[in-house]
Design brief:
Rossmann fold; binds NADPH dihydro-nicotinamide-adenine-dinucleotide phosphate; alpha/beta
């Protein structure tokens, strides 16, 4: 059977990269979206399209999805993953960092939803996996706005899940703990970064993004009438 199109935002590194590779390995055509085009192209995935898209730019996101759908057929899976974590002491943080996180982690998520939702509704099928975090389930010092954006992802996911249920469209939320990716490159506050890294070291490090990709593929691969609503994954020793 011909496999259907998977669209992945934030596919140029980390969890998005691992998931794009996983879906590709399973035979799906894949649309990869992020700002670092050359990285996505360097993966050389068969049946794939890479587009330089900033998820805050709704028009270019919609255009890229349309282009991929014209080539590969309708989107059956959206991994709404692009995000940044500018963790910092809130009292000393430049508010421009709040804007960046809010724009990418909330508006970016809505833009990607917008690009696929109508099509999935009209076809009565599809799966949307929204990337939250353990920071979307509990709050941490130095995570203030990041937590806010991830709680946002939980809130809209619950609402959209009920809205899309009658159309047989599944909405999954995944909430990882510490995963080994480039995410810490977004942390500019030296103290916060040090505390995070010390904690990470203390628990023996983060886990591989490949496990998150496996979980997403598992949830996607269940029959369409089976919805794994939420998934939370952490290193075993991550007690915080
Ligand atoms: P990475 O930094 O490795 O990946 C982030 C991805 O998002 C990159 O591909 C980046 O691509 C993309 N991205 C960032 N901003 C934009 C933008 N404006 N437009 C398009 N793409 C963008 O980190 P992770 O893989 O860890 O992060 C993926 C998601 O997982 C994020 O939402 C993060 O919050 C979440 N998460 C991560 C955890 C972890 O411990 N690693 C834990 C819990 C959640 P580019 O820079 O090329 O645009």
């Amino acid at each position: 059977m011909t496999k259907k199109l998977a669209v992945i935002t934030g596919a140029s590194s980390g969890i998005g990269e691992a998931t794009a590779k996983r879906f590709s390995k399973e035979g799906h055509p894949v649309l990869m979206l992020a700002r670092r085009l050359e990285k996505m192209e360097s993966f050389n995935l068969p049946n794939s399209m890479s587009r330089k898209v900033d998820v805050t730019d709704r028009d270019s996101l919609v255009k890229a999805v349309k282009e991929a759908e014209d080539k590969f057929g309708p989107t059956d899976m959206l991994f709404n993953n692009a995000g940044i974590a500018r963790l910092a002491d809130i009292g000393n943080q430049n508010p421009s960092e709040w804007d960046e996180m809010i724009n990418i982690n909330t508006n970016g998520v809505m833009n990607a939803l917008y690009a696929v939702m109508d099509g999935m509704k009209s076809r009565k099928g599809g799966t949307i996996v929204n990337m939250s975090s353990i920071a979307g389930r509990k709050v941490y010092p130095d995570h203030t706005v990041y937590c806010g954006t991830k709680y946002f992802v939980h809130a809209i996911s619950e609402s959209i899940r009920s809205y899309l249920a009658p159309y047989d469209v599944r909405v999954v939320v995944i909430s990882p703990g510490i995963i080994e990716t480039e995410v810490l490159s977004g942390v500019l506050d030296k103290n916060t970064l040090k505390n995070y890294q010390d904690n990470k070291k203390r628990i023996g490090g983060g886990i591989s993004a490949d496990y998150v990709a496996d979980m997403i593929y598992f949830a996607y691969n269940m029959p369409q009438n089976v919805l794994i609503q939420e998934m939370c994954v952490t290193p075993t020793r991550q007690e915080f």
